[in-house]
Amino acid sequence: MTDIAQKRIRAGKRSRTAPHSRESTCTVAVLCFGMLLAWLPGARVHAADVWSGQTRIEWIRPYSGTKDVSFLLADTSVTTSTCDGGRRVRIDKNHPNLEALYSALLTAFAANKEINVNYSNTDTPECAPKIRLFQVFAD
Q1: 69-73 and 57-62 as β-strands: parallel, antiparallel, unpaired?
Q2: Which one of 14, 32, 45, 71 is most buried, counting C-beta atoms within 10 A?
């Protein structure tokens, strides 16, 4: 500790850390690392924004055990689906708008309307990726 810092401590004054000291360098590094960690989940969500393209629903299958609802899309390739030739997607039972999504997709199916599905694109393929949102087309 320098003489000036010791005199300030004896006088009851706090010693400031110099802007180029080791403590401030560590603080900046921790802040930068924290900002990077906060940014990464947002970057992941943006990268996972995948649309199926205009298609129709061939069948709807509600599951009583899991309460998920699966849909088979007619002519698209969902890149992370491993079931039914890459055409199966689902509404997750924990989706905050499960009833509204299910109702709208059921109506689109009954009216034979085209839809465009936005689904989660994960690094690990699964049988039926989760639907996040969708569009229904008039004709």
Answers
A1: antiparallel
A2: 71
